[in-house]
Design goal:
With 616 residues, the protein is an alpha+beta fold. The protein is built from 18 helices and 20 strands.
Length: 616
Amino acid sequence: NKIFTTKYFHSHQKGFYMSDQPKNDPPVDQQPEETKVNPEEEQGEKKLSKNEQKRLAKLAKKEEEKKKKDEEKKAKGIEQGKPKEKEEEILDPTAYYENRSNFVTQLRDNKNYKTYPHKFHVSHSIEELITQYDPKCTEKGEFSEDTITIAGRVTNIRKQGAKLVFYDLKGDGKRVQVMANANKHVGGDFNEFHAMVRRGDILGIKGNPGRTKTGEFSVAASEPQLLSYCLHMLPTAQTGLKDNETRYRQRYLDLIMNNRTRDIFITRSKMIQYVRRFFDNMGFIEVETPMMNMVAGGANAKPFVTHHNHLNLDLFMRIAPELYLKMLVVGGLDRVYEIGKQFRNEGMDQTHNPEFTSIEFYMAYADYHDLMKLTEDLLSGLVKSLTGDYKLKFHPEGHDKDPVIIDFTPPFKRIPMLKTLGEKLGEEIPKDIETEEAFQFFKKQAIKHKVECSAPVTTARLIDKLVGHFIEVDCLNPTFIIDHPVLISPLAKLHREHPGLTERFELFINHHEICNAFTELNDPFDQRQRFIDQAKQKAQGDDEAMKIDEGFVKALEYGLPPTAGWGMGIDRLAMLLTDTTTIQEVLLYPAMKPIVEQHHDEEHKTNEEETTTKTN
């Protein structure tokens, strides 16, 4: 028979050892008296091995070092027991802000730290760094001997153990990885520094470009420096920043989080640069005219009113620079243009903002036919310069729907306004549209086709609404609507062939007006009468009608050469070129209702409800 044994575990200073003893050994408490040993006596009598002594000494040393570091951190004012980064990310934004603010405040109060340095020398932008060194650094795990300095915003942090930290650094719309290794760290404590960094902080990095072992182009940091602190918790890459209300009110945050927003405004800037070069190359002079005027002229629009304290005078914010620019042509500046802000105290929607940017130019010895050709050259060249093609993809229903193709290939289509409107209505337009009979005709057509016209209901406004309903809806590709009635064109010259019409055009693209131009009215007698007619419309309640501008009429009396004038909305054109459907997307700071007012309105409404309840 086989003899079975059982393994017993015996306690020992260094752990446990096993021995084979017969299964039928007597219990310990039944062993002879002399074999019993007091554990405490045995502990005192036995000596520690050399390995055990070394281990205990090492533990004691580490404990001493940790205690020393904790004391140093406390002396420097660094908050002990502060939440780790991942723990902080879980906090609500308010708690995160309070924690971060308290931490930075302690650093600011500490003379050993320079929390917001005055300058950091940058040898390369991130884009320049990638362009210069990415092609050169080809070997995995090797870094160049060249020392560079870059700076940017931290968008991501990845820690691998206690001695290796990776950052994603973003600047100028580009991203580069930074690798911080404790073995390469210069100046201060590695862990202490990197424990302070959070997403959103601005970092300056001195280091060497190269590739990690996985092959990603990176900068091996040797001397990192915190340049500025982000006190607020950034949205994560997973959630992003999608709320439009927040994006428009905090455009800086939108730019931090969304590269597309940055691309939109870079495209807008390139567009304006192209337009400016185009006119400069044609011999135009760029000028600046007043923003505040005694008379709100140059367009049919309701102005903003401001007050000049020194003169004790109410003034109008300009609705267009037209009259000033034409007076410059009178003075001998034959080709002038201005890119600037206009202000119109009207509604806000997807294509209208009270403050907007336009360009206007005036060209002596030209007419509206010349300007149509110039417009075709400008816009077709601009589109091809920015996109590489005359055909532009646009998503009017959103980027998840199929796009429409807008073709900027010249020449553009031309549509006579009243003739085309008559064809669409299936009716003959009255020859004299300034009669009561004509007014009733257009009013009847508006009712018949359910075209709404807000008060005051005038012939001019009815024509405008009917044209919008029947003609503008067909203008997807660039289309000139030409030869407007005198009634709606107070500053345009009479048509040389068609009585009652003017030499005017509006360019529509994607169903929206982009340009407005005409052969300029340079007859001072005719211009005065047009102003008088506009004043009558204003007396009827049309806030957008013009007032008489005697200063402009007097300038015409000195002689305005045959001139053509043109205006274009920069914002709407930017919408087309950036494939956006709302004007707020192409304005860095669109008009928004203040949050304070919203809260006030809600509070006022609540108070009214409470009052009503008590009354009832």
